[in-house]
Design brief:
Helix 4 (66-73) packs across helix 7 and helix 5 (78-84) packs across helix 6. The chain has 9 helices and no strands. It is an all-alpha fold and 137 residues long. The chain has helices at 9-33, 36-45, 50-59, 66-73, 78-84, 86-97, 102-111, 114-117, 125-130. The model has no long low-confidence stretch (mean pLDDT 84). Helices cover 67% and strands 0% of the residues.
């Protein structure tokens, strides 16, 4: 067995998940300890309201994990989008983070049917449909 193999994948998953949870709790505590002026300034720099920023932090670091998968499923080059429309990509990440249709999205992505159905539930559908040809693969 090589060093890179994990002999207990379930245990490793539990440890990693618990570590992520602890990190998220620490981030939440830091956010609540920050004074309102600094928090509002950070939110302003990110071009969002303090309430939206608080909600994003509350959602955790993996809240927008579906977006890169969706972009791939739709033939959109995320790197090109980041280069040409960084604010659009950031807004798409925000929308994805706060989405209430994660289960449907995950099912469609796993089944390979996301491109057929995303317009039915995706909060980014209008933005995706409005992207120009320079971001399509």
């Amino acid at each position: 067995m090589t060093v890179q193999e994990k002999p207990y994948p379930v245990v490793s998953l539990v440890v990693d998940t618990f570590g992520d949870w602890l990190k998220h709790r620490r981030e939440m505590r830091e956010m609540h300890e920050m004074d309102a002026a600094n928090f509002s300034q950070i939110a302003g720099e990110l071009r969002m309201s303090p309430n939206d920023l608080e909600e994003l932090v509350r959602q955790g670091p993996h809240a927008a994990d579906e977006l890169p998968k969706m972009l791939i499923a739709l033939g959109i080059d995320q790197e090109a989008l980041a280069r040409t429309e960084p604010h659009v990509l950031r807004d798409m990440e925000r929308v994805c983070s706060m989405c209430n249709h994660k289960r449907q999205c995950d099912r469609d992505l796993a089944a390979g049917t996301a491109a057929k159905h995303y317009e039915e539930y995706c909060g980014n559908a209008d933005t995706i449909d409005g992207l120009g040809p320079r971001v399509h693969q």
